[in-house]
Each structure stands twice: as structure tokens, then as C-alpha cells.
């Protein structure tokens, strides 16, 4: 294949999904506040090395540089996208700031869900421990009073250590 054929393939006759990929790469990079150098480093870390100049040519070159399949897989890995998301048309009104806000919102929603699961686990553990303490306290008033005193001491000690 001649270099003229390569230029035609990467130029104005290039398939639309390839433009979508180039736009999406730039959009995802900017949404994260990454430079082309940072993206190149992340791609190398993911095992799909692409240099900074190649990333610039993919995003902005005239003609744009084509993305091969290995690189596309790398971009998917680095950005946390499925291949169909990488090749889909970009959202017209979702600029980098909005996309960043959406990403933060989704991350925080999932972090909250993890914390809620942790709270449920802790609540079950506390209930189990209270059951064991109630069993200990059921052996007489003296043990119950001793347990209450111990609980108060431990509570005060914890509060002193965790103001």
C-alpha cells in the first residue's frame, strides 16, 4: 500500500466512527484534566504504549492519525470504557466540566453504597456482640452492674482517644 493510500485512509474519507474515537479520546482526556503527556504515560502503564505526539495527531492532526485495535483497547482500559462507548458519537452538550461532575457523582454514589453495606455489616456485628453481653449480664445483678461499669469506662476511654 502506498503512502498516498495511507493518507487517503486517514484523511477526509476516513470512516465516521474513527472521528468519534478521536473526539472521545480528547473528550475523556480533557474531562480528567490530563495532558497528552499524562495520557501517554497512562497508556504505557496499561501496556499499550502510544507517545504524546501520536495522541496529539489522533486528536488534532491534519490528517488525524488512525487508532489501531491495540491502542483502542488501551484507551478503553485507561478511560474505563467499553469499546462501543469509545466508538459512539460524543454527547453534544456534555462538555468536559459536566462530564467530570457526572463522573464524580457516579463515583460518590458507589462509594456511598459501599459505606452503607459496611454500616449494615457493622450493625449486625454490634447486634451479635450485644447478644453475647446480654447473655453475660443475665447471670445476676452483680455481673450486670459490672458490665455496665465496664461499658461506661470503655466508652469514656474511647471518647478521650477520639475527640
TrEMBL record:
Endoplasmic reticulum recorded as keyword: no
Alphabetized UniProt keyword annotations: Coiled coil
Top-level division of the source organism's lineage: Bacteria
InterPro entries noted in UniProt: Cro/C1-type_HTH, Lambda_DNA-bd_dom_sf
Domain HTH cro/C1-type stretches: 25-86
Ranges in a coiled coil: 105-132
An MF annotation (GO) of this entry: DNA binding
Matching Gene3D superfamilies: lambda repressor-like DNA-binding domains
Annotated protein name in UniProt: HTH cro/C1-type domain-containing protein
Source species: Streptomyces noursei (Streptomyces albulus)
Lineage: Bacteria, Bacillati, Actinomycetota, Actinomycetes, Kitasatosporales
Amino acid at each position: 500500500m502506498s503512502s498516498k493510500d495511507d493518507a487517503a485512509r486517514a484523511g477526509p474519507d476516513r470512516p465516521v466512527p474513527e472521528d468519534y474515537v478521536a473526539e472521545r479520546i480528547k473528550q475523556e482526556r480533557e474531562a480528567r484534566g490530563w495532558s497528552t503527556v499524562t495520557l501517554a504515560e497512562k497508556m504505557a502503564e496499561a501496556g499499550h504504549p502510544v507517545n504524546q505526539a501520536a495522541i496529539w495527531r489522533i486528536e488534532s492532526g491534519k490528517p488525524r492519525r488512525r487508532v489501531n485495535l491495540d491502542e483502542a483497547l488501551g484507551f478503553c482500559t485507561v478511560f474505563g470504557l467499553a469499546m462501543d462507548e469509545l466508538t459512539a458519537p460524543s454527547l453534544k452538550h456534555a462538555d468536559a466540566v459536566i462530564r467530570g461532575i457526572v463522573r464524580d457523582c457516579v463515583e460518590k454514589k458507589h462509594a456511598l453504597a459501599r459505606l452503607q453495606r459496611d454500616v449494615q455489616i457493622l450493625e449486625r456485628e454490634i447486634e451479635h456482640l450485644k447478644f453475647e453481653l446480654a447473655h453475660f449480664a443475665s447471670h445476676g445483678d452483680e455481673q450486670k452492674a459490672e458490665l455496665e461499669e465496664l461499658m461506661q469506662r470503655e466508652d469514656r476511654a474511647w471518647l478521650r482517644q477520639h475527640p
